[in-house]
Amino acid sequence: MPDDLVARYSRPVPRYTSYPTAPHFHAGVTNDIYRDWLAALPGETGLSLYVHVPFCDRLCWFCGCHTKQVLRYDPIAAYLPAVHKEIGTVSGLLDGRGRAVALHLGGGSPSMLAPDDLLALAARVRAMFAIDGGFELSIEIDPNDMTPDRYDGFAAAGVTRISVGLQDFDPRVQAAINRLQTFEQTRNVVDGMRARGVRSANLDVLYGLPHQTVATVERTVEQALDMRPDRIALFGYAHVPWMKTHQRLIEEAALPSPQERLEQSVAAAERIVAAGYVPIGIDHFALPADGLAQAAASGGLHRNFQGYTTDAAPALLGFGASSIGGLPQGHVQNVTATGDYMRRIAADGLAVARGIAFSGDDRLRAFTIERLMCDFAVSFDELRARFGAMAESVVAELRDYADNDGDELLVPTLAGVSVSVRGRPFVRAIAARFDAYLERGAARHSVAV
User: Residue 23 has what DSSP assignment?
Assistant: First the structure.
């Protein structure tokens, strides 16, 4: 890939797991507005549930999540009753409407939860919501947390999918990001949970980390493939030390350049595809029989705050400090500080700090950006069918971009526009052209490659 092309399109832009993106949320969305939005959900609305566990027993320097390091379990034990209360509040506002299709536990490290606490949380969800027959329960796991009782407890709670962050197995890279984790530890988690009936395992691999090279990334990918996960997420490290101050502990001089990041990404993707995986969007891969690959093939792939998903539920309900929810009317986000979250839940049952209500143009652009990110294409007929005359403004923008793009990243087709093979590594930058908020405010983002 030419250096000048990489330089032009690696500028910092959002990851587009939502639109409008989180920097544009504001305090005008309150608990009362969230209550109104929940009350307006139709009776059979599919509900995707997310619980944030914002605690870790070690601080990984690369992490971009809202989390805090704890050396005792007491803060977690004190936090969970607030989550249970918030779940009860939302359930009461729904008054029996909606059906839960999925529960995802993220962090932080939700694998820090004591088995009894995870069982109690899963039971609380099942008691408070009508549960869909195909209900999925997924959890993010740090292998360093796992003990025999956790394996059995997670299985008893009904975990169906696990996601394990391995990042990179090279010792020098691990030391540079403060994430020590062996291949054997990681394999034990995958094998241990599969032996207990977990149907799907995802592994997270990172490129763009300090001291990484194409060779180290390829070695890590080969080790990941040896575990034959159902899915692999290949993420580019997002270096945002102005937002996550612990990332200042990473030596910036050791970070790969945008060109080197691209080379690492391409080399890793080629290895994964050669092993029989289907590429999904910009950074996921799945075995052909996996639901994610099937959704991509049928046009049913979606993107939300957890990344690429088969989850088409129109309502994502977030629980816990800093969690984000998405409803047909807009996005909501809880307060970030755990102490503040617990106080607000105790007082009012909800802890919304900010959000954004969707305009018609927001919905149109959100759909356009999601299709670019998921399908690398946008159909003009589909835009018109969904949005009527309003679609013409974005159709005109898409046509103008494709007709005048000298780099040939977005090209016209009979149905609409398509991202070229050359343009796929830069699809975030392409999507940014249709972001009406991007030039507003002073939000900073990670590089697009």
Answer: G
Structure-token match 């016209």, residue found: 412
Q: Which among 386, 442, 384, 432 has a CA at the least distance from the CA of 409?
A: 432
For 4, residues 6+ apart whose C-beta sits below 8 A from its C-beta are: none
Residue 377 has pLDDT above 60, yes or no: yes
Spatial contact of 90 and 37, defined as CB atoms under 8 Å apart: no
Contacts of 280 (CB under 8 A, 6+ apart): 286, 292, 293, 296, 301, 308
Q: Report how far residue 272's alpha carbon sits from residue 269's, in angstroms, rounded to the nearest whole number.
A: 5
Q: 328, 411, 333, 410: which is closest to 366 by C-alpha?
A: 328
**Encoding tokens for residue 102?**
């999925």
Specify whether the CB–CB gap between 201 and 161 falls below 8 A: yes
Give the span between the Cα atoms of 294 and 280, in whole angstroms.
10
Residue whose pair of structure tokens reads 């990172």 in the numeric block = 206
Given a cut of 90, is residue 446 above it in pLDDT?
A: no
Taking each helix axis as running N to C, give the angle between helix 338-348 and helix 74-94, from 0 to 180 degrees, rounded to the nearest 10.
40
Q: Of 66, 25, 12, give the one whose Cα is nearest residue 238.
A: 12
Residue indicated by tokens 């013409």: 392
Q: What per-residue confidence (pLDDT) applies to 449? A: 57
Q: How many CA atoms lie within 13 A of 252 on its CB side?
A: 7
Residues in the chain, total: 449
Supply the DSSP string of 419-434, one letter for each residue. Answer: E-TTTGGGHHHHHHTT
pTM of the model: 0.93
Share of the chain above pLDDT 90, in %: 82
Cα 66 off chain centre by:
13
Q: What pLDDT sits at residue 69?
A: 85
Cβ-Cβ contacts under 8 Å for 384 (sequence gap 6 or more)? 391, 392, 395
pLDDT at residue 1 in the model: 63
Q: In whole angstroms, what is the distance from residue 407 CA to residue 438 CA?
A: 22
Q: Mean pLDDT in the chain?
A: 93
Supply the DSSP symbol for 12. Answer: B
Least confident of 58-72, 110-124, 163-177, 323-337: 58-72
Euclidean distance between CA atoms 121 and 128, whole angstroms: 11
**What is the spatial distance between Cα 426 and Cα 444, in angstroms, rounded to a whole number?**
18
Element (H, E) at 46: strand 46-53
* CB 134, CB 157: distance < 8 Å: no
